[in-house]
Amino acid sequence: MTNINQFKKLIIGAACFAVIATGIGVSGQHSAYAATQSSNAAVQESVATASATSAQKIDKVISLSKSLMGKVKYKFGVNNPSKLWFDCSSFTKYVFGKQGINLKWGSSAQSKQGVYVSKSNLKKGDLVFFSVATPGKVNHVGIYIGGGKFIQNTIGGSVNGVIISDLSKYSKRYITARRVV
Fold first, then answer.
1. Family, per the entry (predicted)?
2. Whether residue 137 is found in the same domain as residue 110
3. Share of the chain above pLDDT 70, in %
């Protein structure tokens, strides 16, 4: 989102410079208005393009995550892409990294990246954080995929690897969410 805001500022700044550079006086007010309208249209088009690009990246992150089901092994404290051995946060770091989105390693560190998202406003691609051992302390992360579900790399019972889970079943352990795209 910061890239979109920076781009907006750049476009508006360029439009302002163009207005000043043309030496607009009273007779040039119509040109200034036209330049501003043109600049606004360019900003809106850029925002739409950036949103489409973000949505495409999120879809690719989710698609890659799903394609790794049955291939990835969960190993606590491990980040080994060559063997597809990950803990929960190195898995999210890996799949987002494939789309050029850099995440830190560690669920607690990732819970401080991006912007806060309320549970009621989750969108596909948001990181969701949970407490597994210590109540109230972030120590697990997954990726919200829509429809009340998230994908995670985990271990427990007969599970070792990437699975899709119902967020409602984790409501007692849910802590927060962050939007990083």
1. Belongs to the peptidase C40 family.
2. yes
3. 71
- Is the pLDDT at 170 greater than 60, yes or no? yes
- Residues 120, 88 within the same domain: yes
Each as own residue / partner, the long-range contacts of residues 154-163 (CB below 8 Å, 24 or more positions apart, any chain) are 154/74, 154/88, 155/74, 155/76, 160/73, 160/74, 161/68, 161/69, 161/70, 161/71, 161/72, 161/73, 161/74, 162/65, 162/66, 162/68, 162/69, 162/70, 162/71, 162/72, 162/91, 163/69
User: What CATH code is carried by the domain that includes residue 92?
Assistant: 3.90.1720.10
Higher per-residue pLDDT: 36 or 62: 62
Range of the domain at 49: 2-56
Q: DSSP state, 134? A: S
Residue 157 confidence (pLDDT): 82
pLDDT recorded at residue 108: 97
87 neighbors 74 (Cβ within 8 angstroms)? yes
Residue 134 reports pLDDT greater than 70: yes
39 and 83 part of one domain: no
Kindly state whether residues 169 and 96 are assigned to the same domain.
yes
